Amino acid sequence: MSGVSPHLTISRVTGLVPGNAAARSQARAESEVENNMTKKKKTSIMLTDQDKKLLELLAKKENRSQTKELEYLIRRRAEELKIEEP
After folding, report:
1. Which partner for 23 in 11, 16, 39, 54 could form a disulfide, CB atoms 3.0-4.6 Å apart?
2. 45 or 27, which is more confident?
């Protein structure tokens, strides 16, 4: 069995000058993303080899990370079951 440890690493490169309004706006947006990232909890799950391969294929086909694909599938299933976010 192989496990998936869903966590994200964000790298950023900006060409903005720190003193201008665009830079301040970009910094606020990045700060909000970082704040959202700190709210996420690291979760480890165990998958069968077959499920791991399916997750890899789904993520590749949808052009997103395995973590993003898992998040998408969880949210979609919650919507199907009409479960509201806490």
Report:
1. 16
2. 45
Contacts 24+ apart (CB under 8 A), 37-44: 37/8, 37/10, 40/7, 40/8, 42/5, 42/6, 42/7, 43/5, 43/6, 44/3, 44/4, 44/5
Q: What does each C-alpha distance from 22 to 7, 28, 37, 66, 69 come to in angstroms?
A: 29, 10, 22, 32, 31
Both tokens of 72, joined, read 């998408």
pTM over 0.90: no
Coil/strand/helix, residue 47: strand
What are 28-43's pLDDT values in tens digits? 666 665 666 567 788 8
